[in-house]
Amino acid sequence: MLWVLKALNLKALGYNKWVIHKFEADLCLPPELVIMDISKLEPVVHRWLDYKLMNEGKSARTVDKYAGYLLRLQNYLDKPLLEAERDDLVNFTGLHLHSEGFKPRSRRAVVAAVRGFYAWCLKNQHISQDPARDLEYPKSGQRLPTSMSLSHAEKLLMQPDIATFTGVRDAAILALMMGCGFRMGGITALNDSNLIWYKHQDKDRLAIRVIEKGDKERVIPVPVEAMLLLQAYLGHRELHDIDRLLENGDRVLFVSTGNRLVPACDYRGEERRLSARSIDKFIKRYAEDAGIPNAEAHAHALRHLVGTELAEESATSFEIQSILGHADPKTSQTYIKLAVRKLTDVLDKANPLEKLNTPISPLAKEFKRAL
């Protein structure tokens, strides 16, 4: 059994299916170059991967990538990993990966994995000297995020047909993305138990406990517009006819409506969970229908929109960090914990949905006037 299959098959990690990641988005490489049999990794690498997963708490996806990087190094060397010298590692992370199409930003991740592996080997006395100690990171320019404009966000949110079940579902997902800045992985992993109802100014409000990149958890208040769309989705009669029940008694939040790869008798529970690929497809489809440029037709452009609007409305860097779940490099990934009610006021003031004309806008304004 592949080590990474064993890791990702853990239900506690939230994965019910097992695929070998192809990394196309990160590396821009043909699939045949990146699908690897990591069962051939040396035993010492397996022990390091277990340490990263179990002791350091790295996410399974991150450890999966580490495994792929170390297998590339192992295949490149003509000797065991523990016998590698500094020149071997310099040539591998430099000229070799460059010739395979790795961009500087992607090579930085490989260097980090290689350095981490050999530092661990030295600490655990597998080697007497660390050949990767001074291995340099390739320089890469900082990419400016592509944010969707407010006008395009408004057009996008008007595309789903909210007279249909899938339209209400899609509108609710888009509203959560452009209202809360959730990543796509966080959206797809949501269950009913992630919804937290609370009182704010004597009104029922909703917050969502989301677990995203690096398995980090945060609780984010939901803007009124997104809350109302989500309520419409949860109250839809078609949703009530779908078996969303999971083995632990929870329920999948966002469901798919068709999957030809799953037998009808098994199309329930976890198999009903809407995939990130499905969300990406409908974002691109709606964007094309609305005449929105391809550069903005992705989930992260909506996330960047939230960050941009928060900054425009003078939200502090700490508030932006807390809402978007960013790690602050200046404080070594220290997170500022803000009260949910404080974040509610910030989002109510600055979230993009407040500035858009949407099908739910009149009801949202009436709701706010009653506050």
TrEMBL record:
State the source organism's domain of life.
Answer: Bacteria
Q: Where is the Tyr recombinase domain?
A: 143-348
Q: Name one GO molecular function term.
A: DNA binding
A single BP term in Gene Ontology: chromosome segregation
Q: Which PROSITE patterns match?
A: CB, TYR_RECOMBINASE
Carries keyword ATP-binding? no
Q: Name one Pfam family in it.
A: Phage_integrase
Protein keywords: Chromosome partition, DNA integration, DNA recombination, DNA-binding
Q: What residues does the Core-binding (CB) domain cover?
A: 39-122
Q: What's the name of the protein?
A: Tyrosine recombinase XerD
